[in-house]
Amino acid sequence: MSSESQRLPVAPYGMPEEQARPFRLVLQLHTPLVLPMVVPRLDVLLQEAACRRALDWSCYPSLPLVFDQARGGYRASQLVFGVTAHQGLTAEPLGAITRLTTLPLLRAANVRAPLRVDGGDWAPKLTQHQGLLSPYVLFYAEGDPDACLDLLPELPNIGQGHSRGQGMVSAMAVQEDTQQRWRQRPWRLESEHNSMAYTPVPDVLRLTSWGDDEAVYRPPRIMREIVS
Prior knowledge:
Low-confidence stretches: 1-9
Distance between the termini: 49 Å
Structural class: alpha+beta
Strand content: 25-35%
Strand order of the largest sheet: 8-1-7-4-11
Mean pLDDT: 85
Number of strands: 11
Order of helices and strands: HEHEEEEEEHEEEE
Helix content: 10-25%
Radius of gyration: 21 Å
């Protein structure tokens, strides 16, 4: 057992299903979003928001979502880009400084080499990322939408580069949705994605933040739908 699993207790499961409502959460996207390797899920974002509010990352808080015991994960989808008839999904390269280092004069391979004005091999390097911009991002879930909206202001930015202003979002609307699109997230079985408008992709991911990596099927990294 790892030291992390000893330190962090298993989260209490979410709210009772009989008290939950199915909903679609619409967030307005203000700046380009750089997707991390694992597409953000609503349950993961809410967990981070709850920890920030409590200033405590030593345990997993109970979330205002339904935990599906049969599937082993929260009923909360991964991020979906929302487009309209007038605004679509666009991609553009974004450059970010990878790291800053001091000039290692004493560690240089050739100490007799002249010092270059531009910093040479030790100058700050720019890493190119793909920034995705659409008018909205969407999440589907079953739970307490009001409690979710209450937590989300703790996360004004999401995705990579959130500390540099990328992925700025603000809550816009909550709408009732009974189409079970909360299933648009990783699950163990390919059949769990039946009736979804995509082909699931085999991968190795975690179903819960406190779990271990396991073989799953997930939706594509980039999903979009029209917001009417």
